[in-house]
Amino acid sequence: MAIGATKPATPAAVADGATGGGRAHDLASAATVPPPSAEQEDVRIPPGTMVADRYRIARVLGEGGMGVVYAAEHVLMRKEVAVKVLHAEMCSMPEVVARFEREAIAAAHIDHPNVAGATDFGRLPDGSCYLVLELLRGTSLREEITKGPIPLPRALRILRGIASGVSAAHVKGIVHRDIKPENVMLVERDGDPDFVKVLDFGIAKVDPNVAAPEGGGKVLTRVGTVFGTPEYMSPEQAVGDTVDARADLYAIGVVFLEMLTGKCPFTGNALSILRERILAVGPPDMSGIEDAGARALVARLLTRQPDDRMQTAAE
């Protein structure tokens, strides 16, 4: 459970499967990667190596106990990409591989400007699985929030981008289940410095008809199993109930509130946060939001019952 002067290149999604776990799905750049241990060096793909006869490895972007993410070049198209590689031993675990495949399928099926796309997936000769992702240059929304509250007009522009990307996923029967500032990148596009890219569909709930067009797709999620990051989970997600698109809307409400106030409304250890969510202790503090319309929007998104929230990301 996922309980300098120039902007760095960042992989479209560096999830637990690549960074070795932890509550947050950290976005990593070459500048933030710690010195590798001897064991980590052993599992790295050396720069210059060709992967799948078309991706030339350039450098490491991020790594952990389960895999490594590299910056690479598609040599035929002369295009930079991010290549996420699961260690070979991880690829012997069916559940790990199934979730990696799920991330690939989800990202590949959402063709939308506000969603970071996946373009390729396969296995290497040593049995390792790899996933090719869009390589982004920008900053995470988490980095922007750490600077302090985001003014309402800017926060609304970012909110619209998140909702637009999530809406495209929902149309395809895909529920993200881990919307949070770490999984939102802000990149420059057509003069807009805050163009949103939604990342990391590693724990998405995917309609079996999308995951397996011929039918018979394996259902990885079971009722009673909790997936996500506690601070951003909806009440139904926190208790392991079946979730739908409205769980993502709850998380979007938390992110919007955090943008406006500069702090997450739910803090503490994972267990206490989940208990608070399950018991519905009360609405979060919105005293830091001056705009009445913004307060009303947050309040509606963060209602306990899904039926009382907005029902679609488009709405």
Please explain how this structure is put together.
- This protein is an alpha+beta fold.
- 30% of the residues lie in helices and 21% in strands.
- The chain is built from ten helices and eleven strands.
- It has helices at residues 16-19, 38-43, 94-109, 141-145, 152-171, 208-211, 235-238, 245-261, 270-279, 292-301, and strands spanning 9-11, 50-51, 55-63, 67-74, 79-86, 118-123, 129-140, 174-175, 184-189, 192-198, 205-206.
- The strands form two sheets. Strands 1, 2, 3, 4, 5, 6, 7, 9 and 10 form a nine-stranded antiparallel beta sheet that branches. Strands 8-11 form a two-stranded antiparallel sheet.
- A hairpin with a 4-residue loop joins β4 and β5.
Attribute tags:
315 residues; alpha+beta; two-stranded antiparallel ribbon; 11 strands; disordered N terminus
Strand tally is 11
Q: Please give the count of helices.
A: 10
Give helix % range: 25-40%
Largest sheet: 9 strands, antiparallel
Mean pLDDT: 80
Could you give the topology of this structure?
Blueprint: E1 9-11, H1 16-19, H2 38-43, E2 50-51, E3 55-63, E4 67-74, E5 79-86, H3 94-109, E6 118-123, E7 129-140, H4 141-145, H5 152-171, E8 174-175, E9 184-189, E10 192-198, E11 205-206, H6 208-211, H7 235-238, H8 245-261, H9 270-279, H10 292-301
Antiparallel strand pairs: 1-7, 2-3, 3-4, 4-5, 5-7, 6-7, 7-9, 8-11, 9-10
Helix pairs in contact: 5-8, 8-10
